[in-house]
Design brief:
- This protein is mainly alpha-helical.
- It has one domain (about 1-65).
- It is about 50% helix and about 0% strand.
- It has 4 helices and no strands.
- The longest helix has 12 residues, at about 5-20.
- The radius of gyration is 13 Å and the shape is globular.
- The chain starts with 6 loop residues before the first helix and ends in a 26-residue tail after the last helix.
């Protein structure tokens, strides 16, 4: 699976997966990985402890699923996230 992604893409996928406000659907739209495939990729790419932390963080988090999101959340990042 990771063979089809460049190291830069793989790094960005992992970064997006860790971001609280980036829904799984955005990763699927950009990289073609559904939630199940993303979990497999994360399990393979992260060390075991980091994977457990990531799963605990994303399990049940409404912002990671578009269908569960509040309509007030209409962007994928915090306004202060990319300050210059």
């Amino acid at each position: 699976m990771s063979e089809k992604f460049s190291p830069a893409d793989l790094s960005r996928i992992i970064e997006m997966a860790w971001e609280d406000r980036t829904p799984f659907e955005a990763i699927e739209l950009l990289y073609g990985l559904n939630q199940h495939q993303l979990i497999k990729l994360m399990r393979r790419e992260l060390n075991a402890g980091s994977f457990r932390l990531w799963r605990a963080r994303t399990s049940g988090r409404s912002t990671k699923h578009l269908a569960l999101r509040s309509p007030e959340i209409n962007r994928g990042y915090c306004p202060s996230q990319y300050k210059r």
